[in-house]
Structure formats: C-alpha cells, structure tokens
Specification:
With 205 residues, the chain is α/β, with parallel strands linked by helices. The protein has six helices and six strands; from the N terminus they run E-H-E-H-H-E-H-E-H-E-E-H. Helix content is 40%, strand content 16%. Strands 1, 2, 3, 4, 5 and 6 form a six-stranded parallel beta sheet that branches. Bound molecules: flavin mononucleotide. Residues 9, 11, 14-16, 83-87, 136-141, 171-172, 175, 177 line the site of flavin mononucleotide.
C-alpha cells in the first residue's frame, strides 16, 4: 500500500509541502508507505499536443516527467498539493497532470476509426486508485484550484477521498511559510489521511 504526494510549489520552504507532509505522516502511522515528491527543480515541459502517446503508449517528451509518472502509476493513492496562483494550480503541476492524464489514457486504449465513438473500456493507468487535492492560498482562489484537481481526478477514473472539510490550507502573507498556524487546516489534512488509509485498506482486502 503506497501513497505518493506531489507538491507543485516551486519554493524550497513551502506551505503546501508542510500540509502534504502532515498528511503523509498520518498515512505512515496507518501503515501506508508514502513518497513525497516536490516539483521544485524538476524539468517538466507542458504537453506539446503532439498526440504521439496514442501510438507510443507513453509520453515522448524527454524530461523529468517519466520518473514521476512511473511512481504515480505504481501507487495506490495520489495526493496533489498546489499553492494557489491566480486562482489556479501552478504551471508545473498543470504540465505534469496534462501529460500524465493524456498519455495515461492512451497507454491502455486504442484510437478508434474516425467514425467510431471513443470507448474507454480499459479506463486509464490510474483506474482503481484513490486521490485527493490539497490547495493552499493566502486569501482566495482555493476552490478553483481545488476544482481543477477534482476535474483531473474524476476524468481519469480515480476515486476521490474527502475529509471533514475541504482540504484547503491558509498561509503565506508576503510569502511567509506559516502553515503550521492554520491548525484547523492541519486537522482537516489529518482527517483526510485517515479516510484515505481506511479506503485503501478496504480496497486491498
Ligand atoms: C504568482 C503567485 C500568485 C498567487 N496567487 C494567489 C491567489 O490567487 N490567491 C491567494 O490567496 N494567494 C495567492 N498567492 C499566494 C500563495 O498562494 C501563498 O503564498 C501560498 O502559501 C504559496 O504556497 P507555497 O508556500 O507552498 O509556495 C500567489 C502567490 C504567487 C507567487
């Protein structure tokens, strides 16, 4: 049982990383192996829209994407954490998710003739996994970034895990790293982790 937590902040000291680590700590305590991945210093280009993954069954753009993608595919659970940038997830996380979602679909499906409807019988490489978003802002825009992540999860055949409130954190006036002061946010992340551990254990029975 393994959960991978990916953080889209480009900063070394990061509020989003703090909330992610809080969540992963509880999962570890529940007996789930975890891996924390920061996109800081990773080179992940945006999707080029080349459509070569349909034939190649993998993204053909060569950079740090592949190592992270492989770890996402191996995991039972995925957590995506993003700072809110202009009411959106960060560009780095968007690049990862665009490429993972598109190539992860074509990795297990064939392109039909133009006259036939798409038929996603084989799901995606993420089918059967559980996932949850974590978004962190100073003031506003959490919900749009949160919704972006939910939309990615629900189109890619993952099952979304909830908490006792939306998994959003408050932090960072003037770039401060003070997420630990959001004790309500911390407890929401801890509850999220308990829910995710419970569901993964049920699915693995
Ligand atoms: C380019 C940029 C855009 C931002 N946009 C928003 C925003 O739309 N709403 C908000 O409340 N905070 C915004 N912030 C503040 C960050 O969301 C906040 O500092 C957050 O804690 C950063 O997360 P991190 O510490 O994990 O990097 C923005 C910060 C940057 C650098």
């Amino acid at each position: 049982m393994k959960v991978v937590g990916i953080v889209g902040s480009p900063r070394a000291e990061s509020n989003t990383a703090y909330f992610m680590k809080v969540t992963l700590e509880v999962l570890e305590k529940q007996g789930i192996q975890t891996k924390f991945i920061s996109l800081r210093n990773k080179k992940i280009q945006p999707c080029t829209g080349c459509y070569q993954c349909i034939e190649a069954k993998r993204c053909t753009v060569k950079d740090d994407f592949h190592d992270i993608f492989d770890q996402m595919v191996e995991a039972d659970g995925l957590l995506f954490g993003s700072p809110v940038y202009h009411a959106s997830i960060t560009a780095d996380l968007k690049a990862l998710l665009d490429r993972a979602g598109f190539s992860g679909r074509w990795a297990v499906n064939e392109m039909k003739e133009k006259t036939e409807n798409y038929n996603w019988q084989k799901g995606t490489v993420f089918s059967g996994k559980v996932a949850a978003p974590i978004t962190v802002a100073r003031r506003a825009g959490h919900d749009f970034a949160f919704a972006q992540l939910l939309m990615w999860m629900t189109v890619n055949d993952l099952t979304v895990i909830g908490s006792n409130y939306w998994n959003v954190g408050m932090a960072g006036k003037g770039g401060a790293v003070d997420a630990h002061e959001d004790t309500e946010g911390v407890s929401i992340m801890q509850h999220l982790a308990q829910n995710m551990a419970y569901v993964i254990k049920q699915l693995k029975k």
